Amino acid sequence: MEKQSQVEILEGSRQALRAGQIHFDFDNEDVVLSALKRVDKAVLITPASPTELETGVRFVQIAKDAGLKHLVFMSIHRVEEAPLIPHFASKVAIQKELEKSGLMWTTVAPNNFYQNDYFFKSSLLDHGIYPQPFGNVGLSRVDADDIADALVQSLLREELRGQIFPLIGPEALTAKQTSEMYSQYLGAPILYGGDDLERWEESNKPYLPAWLLADWKQMYMFFQRQGLKATVADYIQQEKILNRPAKTFESFVKETIQAWKR
C-alpha cells in the first residue's frame, strides 16, 4: 500500500517494538485518541472479546472526536441475518454507530476465511478429519488476501465511501465438499467430522473460553440451518472493490497442502 500511494502506514500494537508500530490499547481511551490523532484514516478490526460491542462503539466515538477523515470497518458477510449470534450482534451495533456518527466510512464484510483451516492442520494430516462443523448448506468462504486487498482499496478510493462490500469466494461449498477437496490434494481420505455440536463443544472446552465457545456454537448452528451463501447482488457489489475474480478455495487448498508438505 505504501508503494502504491506514498502514504505512511502505522500499525497499532500493545507492544510497539518495531518501526511503523505505535502503542495501542482498545481499553485505554486516551491511548486510542492519541493514536487516531496521528492518522487521517484507520481500519477497525475489532478483537474477539465479550466486550467487542462496547469496544467497537467506543472506538467509533473516539474516532469522531479525533477528527478522523475516514474509517474502514471490517464486519461479517450478511451479518444482519443472524443478529442473535454475539459477535454478529456486535458488528451490527458498530455499523449502526458508524452510520450515525457523521464520519466518512466504508465497510468490508467477509464470509468465513479459508485461512481458518490452518487451525485444522493436525486434524487433517494426523487424523484424516475436517472438523469445522459448518454443515452442508454451504458457505461462500473467502481468502484473506482478498480481504486485505479490499481493505487497501477502501482506504485509497473515495468513491467506495458510504458502502458495504461483501467479500466472498466464487463458490459456496459444504463441509462435505470441503473435506473432499482436501482429500483430493492430500491423496488420502478426509472425512467431515459431522454436525454434532454437543460433541464439538465438549472437545473444544480445553482450548476455548466459555463465552467464545457459546458464541461459535450459535454461529455453527446458524451455518448448519441456513448456510451463508452469496447472492448475485453480492458478487456485483464485490466487483466494485476487487476489480478481479476472488481466489478459489481449490487454489487455496493446493497452495496450503504444498506448504504443509515442505
What structural keywords apply?
8 strands; four-stranded parallel β-sheet; 262 residues
Describe this structure in words.
It is a single chain. With 262 residues, this protein is α/β, with parallel strands linked by helices. 47% of the residues lie in helices and 11% in strands. The chain has helices at residues 2-5, 29-36, 52-66, 86-100, 121-127, 144-156, 175-186, 197-204, 210-226, 232-242, 249-260; strands spanning 11-13, 21-23, 41-44, 70-74, 105-110, 129-130, 164-167, 191-192. Strands 3-4-5-7 form a four-stranded parallel sheet, with helices on both faces. Strand 3 (41-44), helix 3 and strand 4 (70-74) form a beta-alpha-beta unit. Helix 3 (52-66) runs parallel beside helix 4. The longest helix has 17 residues, at 210-226. It is globular, with a radius of gyration of 19 Å. The mean pLDDT is 94.
